[in-house]
Amino acid sequence: MKNKLNVLYFNIFLMFLGISIVIPVLPTILHDLNLNGSDLGVLVAVFALFQMIASPFGGRFADKFGKKIIIIIGLLLFSISEFIFAVGDSFTVLLLSRMLGGISAAFVMPGVNGMIGDLSTHESRAKNFSYMSAVINTGFIVGPGVGGFLAEISHRAPFYFAGGLGIVALLFSIFLLKEATDDDVEEAYRKPKVKEPFPYKLFVVPVIIMLILSYGLASTETMFSLYTAEKVGFEPKDISIAITGGAIVGVIFQLFLFEKLVGKIGEIKLTLYSLIYSVIILGVFLVASNYLAVMLVSFVIFIGFDLIRPSMTNYFSKLAGNNQGTAGGLNSASTSVGNLIGPLVAGVVFDININFPLYVAMAFFVVAAVIVFFYRPDKLKF
């Protein structure tokens, strides 16, 4: 079981390394094509739209046909989308790339979440999902540095490299990734907590929380490079340092604190405290007015997100029982709705005032915190 998880983690690392490699050069690509903040918002939103549409199918297909084949299809689409972006010389071609990218995420993430859920016992679930988030963040640590180096060769080089990483992950999945067997899942699901048919009512509040979270995260992440570039003159190398530093801090929290925090206070309280932290730190980010202050806050601005994401993913898995793929698809779909709305709104209000996306994100987090505060998960039996 451990070897299966390690192969899965390695493939996810390669994919998110590919995703993060291109982040530092996005502002330059937009400038070369005479695109603005609203256009960037549309590019991110189109990705989320197609992820939202395809996620329910990806989740159901994962449960029906197996997680491995869904992950393989998703990685293939990811590689194709990156190669298309690399050669794209118009907004239309970039949109096509993002459409395929959204579908790829709709297949990969439900498959990954479902497979981790299948391979996890009740005791190991939080640890396994925290490791997954840490692996994703590690990809974000290495990626911007590699992307900044490749950008010195060509602004398109990071996209070619990302596509190549997708092919490597695809080959690893084909030859090394194995489906969970009955021996793997027997202990975890000897007494399934959720019976067929899939209990959608149990997921109403978690889906709402995940949607609001993803909105705030997507709006903040989408405009981060443009915001820091305009406010204090961040260049691609500065953006790389900020993202890398923040990802390192996130990995530390996920590897060494997340499992302990979940075990002590549970996913819901951890989500509440993380939302409150996110509101406060975004306020601090707003008032930071010089290069050093913005850089330092950038290192800790995403800690709340880095704890909420694995916390809610773990909670989805606990509710899912034997329906890990479907729950993963629902998680992915709710996330993509926020990812769709967030960049669109952030792009529009950014062009009005660069601070507005942060104000809106803070308001959404306050709403989410209120919902979580009054949520009573103790009425659910696991």
UniProtKB/TrEMBL annotation:
SUPFAM superfamilies: MFS general substrate transporter
GTP-binding keyword on record: no
Ranges annotated as spanning the membrane: 7-30, 42-62, 69-87, 99-117, 129-151, 157-177, 198-219, 239-258, 270-286, 292-308, 329-350, 356-375
Domain of life of the native organism: Bacteria
Domain annotation Major facilitator superfamily (MFS) profile: ranges: 4-380
GO CC terms, sorted: plasma membrane
CDD domains per the UniProt record, alphabetical: MFS_MdtG_SLC18_like
Alphabetical keyword list: Cell membrane, Membrane, Transmembrane, Transmembrane helix, Transport
Subcellular location: Cell membrane
Primary subcellular site in the record, as a coarse category: membrane
Xref: Pfam families: MFS_1
Protein name listed in UniProt: Quinolone resistance protein
